[in-house]
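Tokens help. Our protein:
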Amino acid sequence: MFKIQTDLALETRELVQKGFGREIEGVEVEERKEFDDKIKITKVKINSIKGEAILQKPMGNYITIEADGLRDEDFDVQEKVSKVLANELESLINVSQKSSVLVVGLGNWNVTPDSLGPKVVSKVLITRHLFEFVPEKVQDRRIRSVCAISPGVLGITGIETSEIISGIVQKIHPDLIIAIDALASRRLERISTAIQIADTGIIPGSGIGNERKGITKDTVGVPVVAIGVPMVVDAAIIANDAIDLLIERLKNETERSSPLYMLLESIPDEDRFNLIKEVIYPYYGNLFVTPKDIDRIVENISTVIADGINMAIHPEVKENDEYRYVN
């Protein structure tokens, strides 16, 4: 099977399952819908080394929240997605009221599709300085110590992001890291409509074939929960899907016994994808596509994620709506 770039465990599982024709050994899947079926939640749990090897993703929990309303600017749906995100995030983190949290906004703030992480950081309720300088203001509040950073990317700083985070961890000793990043999808309909939460950490750039050193418990020393949203899709995938659709329509209008049908049936997926790469890659290399209104999308999704994080980390925020949209 040819490699298709995607950061979503849900999509990797869909591709592998299609090839297997059955559920994958060592992988558990649970699906449900909420709020009049406007929000779909899919939990993929990799619980064995075999499942890990097949999906090529670390053992752990991957939760995907899908809602078309995220793309359509349905603010009622966006608010509900924030609450679902908060509940699912709470189910993955193991922190006490006295725990401290470091929020990391991954990505390049100069490139709009990659600026989700920094945007979220700008909207998270930051409190660590209050605990240090005005503790009397927060001592009776049900909020946790939270700090945040947008470390930039290697091309700007000359430093691996994981090295920056490791240095911060050694200095401030957080109990948990929440990392936010833009992802790559293999389906157009999931661009800006899906949010993935994973308790396995993150490898920045993996979805676009530009892998950096991972940000995981093993590399930075504390648990890492990653939140990501697909913002780009490989142009070769779009072309491949279009040709796929064309071939299926031609087959439906052609006699099964005809030479044309037999020819269409005999074209392997990998050969077709390689032909597409021969057209695109010599001129553009890895070409990724993003929606034209990506600036609006990033602004809206960053608010949804920041609200979800605020509610999950700070019990008082979840109970008192006036604390929401603080930034």
About this structure: The beta strands are 27-34, 39-46, 60-66, 100-105, 145-149, 176-185, 194-198, 224-234, 288-289. The chain has a mean pLDDT of 87.
